[in-house]
Amino acid sequence: MKLEKQHAKLIKLQTKAESCMSREEAKKIIRKAEKAQSKISG
Q1: Euclidean distance between CA atoms 18 and 40, whole angstroms
Q2: Could you report the average pLDDT of every consecutive run of 10 residues in the chain (42 residues)?
Q3: For position 1, what pLDDT does the model report?
Q4: How many other C-beta atoms are found inside a 10 Å radius of the C-beta of residue 30?
Q5: Cβ neighbours of residue 1 under 8 Å, at least 6 residues apart?
Q6: pTM value?
Q7: How far is CA 24 from CA 9, 14, 34, in A?
Q8: Is residue 22 within a helix (H) or strand (E), and if so which, with residue range?
Q9: CB 26 within 8 A of CB 17
Q10: DSSP characters for 1-42?
Q11: Contacts of 20 (CB under 8 A, 6+ apart)
């Protein structure tokens, strides 16, 4: 995946994280964000 797509994904996940209501939902978002971040970092 291209870096622009990963950055867009992180931004989208951040907005979801700000509005999540449960701990489980937050954990799922964090895992997805960590995966996207690792792809950016290499």
Answers
A1: 22
A2: 86 92 94 91 82
A3: 53
A4: 13
A5: 39
A6: 0.77
A7: 19, 15, 15
A8: none
A9: yes
A10: --HHHHHHHHHHHHHHHHH--SHHHHHHHHHHHHHHHHHHH-
A11: 26, 29
